[in-house]
Amino acid sequence: MGHNQPILSMTVEQLYQRMNNNDTFFLLDVRESHEVAICQLPNSKHIPMNLIPTYIDTIPDGIDIIVYCHHGIRSLAVATYLQHAGFCSKQLFNLEGGIDKWAKIIDKSLSRY
């Protein structure tokens, strides 16, 4: 049930607010290692997109999972994959615009690429 629902999206402003509120969530970075070396969001767990099936057991179930990448394309694919793997649709979020939008709007000190 709920495997065909559209993936929910979260704006960078909403994520920033959740961070400031100390909300509980799992922040999943699905970019490649060379991208993470440039910049990353605090308290995020890095699992490259192609390794998600291998490390799916390290992704907690039962809490909100916010997936991000560079612009939001790969993260949407990963969120959809997780949904089909049985994660709750209501707890999967794609970060709109990815880390690039975060660097433009929230933290201008982050390196952009």
TrEMBL record:
Region forming the signal peptide: none
Domain Rhodanese: 21-111
Protein name: Sulfurtransferase
